[in-house]
UniProtKB/TrEMBL annotation:
Gene Ontology BP terms: glycogen biosynthetic process
Name by which UniProt lists this protein: Glucose-1-phosphate adenylyltransferase
Residues involved in alpha-D-glucose 1-phosphate binding: Y106, G171, E186, K187, S204
E.C. code: 2.7.7.27
Pathway the protein acts in: Glycan biosynthesis; glycogen biosynthesis
Highest rank taxon of the organism: Bacteria
UniProt entry keywords in alphabetical sequence: ATP-binding, Carbohydrate metabolism, Glycogen biosynthesis, Glycogen metabolism, Nucleotide-binding, Nucleotidyltransferase, Transferase
Length: 418
């Protein structure tokens, strides 16, 4: 990182919007907010946005929480408490109850910032980076902040380049050759395309850079407006676009790649199918996301557990894992794993078979059980001999089964089995 970009990052505060439930993840978010959902064997979804900020040189961070926040707050306290206040570093957890004259819940993404302006001012940032806490990607934000300063933009919007057909489900930016945003359209039937490439469009990532004083000004103006939903995507950004002060920042310019990835990686793991696929994809020989690169680490809270163990070595009862990832504290006892991802402390017992299984921490699979294409929630205990993934109709009656045949299984569902 050059000195100019590092200096800009040091003058920036990151504000992470982490209050969303993520209802499309169904029972996975019954007890935790979407940003607190486990991902990749050791981490949580929010760790990617936070790690990007720290690796970019940003050491002042606020995290706005709301829905089912206990799991998220506990994770942040355990894994993200290494900042030093005497260096003007810190991570503040900001529940939706800061202002006594307001309702407790945040009314929208912009209101989540408005309610905490006094805290943000206390850090004295020159720039504010607004982040969503529920996406998987690696990005050096300092490039985006640098572009913001060089263009003199009122707001710079982070955008992911997607095929035109896929852009119909996003908020899409129509930009000119200088990256100035000409219009912003939500889920258009005919998405505008990028200059010089009529096959791809720029979709909003929910990432914004503002000069701090300007952001305070527009939020102060938005706050008393009863017609506003107090939301960045619905109110704040469109109004700045209309004034001609918004610029786009294509993700490809600041995406962090190790050399193994074939294209910039960004995923919204907001459905059970997308969540399962993104986790299982990590087991590929050349995964689309390289989480092994040490020059851009994904920081997290890591439990102190012993190494994974594989035991028994006889025909039909051999502890083995092929094309799989197995976290510490796991014991694969006389069972067979193929294309599986096991989080911390999982147990698989003798003669069981797992294929395409994402098992969250401390899940357990009993003897002679067969589990295929499934997500096991934390602490789920699959009974001995249970078969999952072979009878679609039976699976749909017992568990949450998606259109693509992925079963989401909670302990409550297991307990309801006859």
């Amino acid at each position: 990182m050059n000195n100019d970009r590092f200096s800009l990052a040091q003058q920036t505060m990151a504000y992470v919007l982490a209050g969303g439930r993520g209802s499309r993840l169904k029972e996975l978010t019954d007890v935790r907010a979407k940003p607190a959902v486990y991902f990749g064997g050791k981490t949580r979804i929010i760790d990617f946005a936070l790690s990007n900020a720290v690796n970019s040189g940003i050491r002042r961070i606020g995290v706005a929480t709301q829905y089912k926040a206990h799991s998220l707050i506990r994770h942040l306290q355990r894994g993200w408490s290494f900042f030093r206040a005497e260096r003007n570093e810190g991570l503040d957890i900001l529940p939706a109850s800061q202002m006594l004259d307001e309702e407790n819940w945040y009314k929208g993404t912009a209101d989540a910032v408005t309610q905490n302006i006094s805290i943000i001012r206390g850090y004295g940032p020159k720039y504010i980076l607004i982040l969503a806490g529920d996406h998987i990607y690696k990005q050096d934000y300092s490039y985006m902040i640098e572009q913001h300063v060089q263009t003199g933009a009122k707001v710079t919007v982070g955008c992911i380049e997607v095929p035109k057909e896929e852009a119909k489900g996003f908020g899409v930016m129509d930009v000119d050759a200088t990256d100035k945003i000409l219009s912003f359209v939500e889920k258009p039937a005919d998405p505008p395309t990028m200059p010089g490439d009529d096959t791809r469009s720029l979709a909003s990532m929910g990432i914004y850079v503002f000069e701090a004083e300007y952001l305070y000004e527009i939020l102060d103006k938005d706050r008393p407006d009863d017609a506003s939903e107090h939301d960045f995507g619905k109110d704040i950004i469109p109004s700045i676009v209309a004034e001609g002060g918004a610029y786009a920042h294509p993700f490809s310019r600041s995406c962090v790649m190790s050399g193994l990835e074939s294209e910039p990686y960004w995923r919204d793991v907001g459905t059970v199918d997308a969540y399962w696929k993104a986790n299982i994809d990590l087991t590929d020989f050349e995964p689309a996301l390289d989480i092994y690169a040490t020059d851009w680490p994904i920081w997290t809270y890591s439990e102190l557990v012993p190494p994974a163990k594989f035991i028994h070595n006889e025909e039909g009862r051999r502890g083995q894992a092929v094309s799989s990832m197995v976290a510490g504290g796991c014991i694969v006892s006389g069972s067979s794993l193929y294309r599986c991802l096991l989080f911390t402390g999982c147990r698989t017992h003798s003669f069981s078979q797992l294929e395409g299984v994402v098992a969250l921490p401390y899940a357990e699979v009993g003897r002679r059980a067969f589990v295929k294409n499934a997500v096991l929630d934390r602490g789920v205990k699959v009974p001995p001999g249970l078969v999952i993934g072979e009878d679609p109709e039976l699976d749909a009656k017992r568990f949450r089964r998606t259109e693509n045949g992925i079963c989401l299984i909670t302990q409550k569902m297991i307990d309801a089995l006859e």
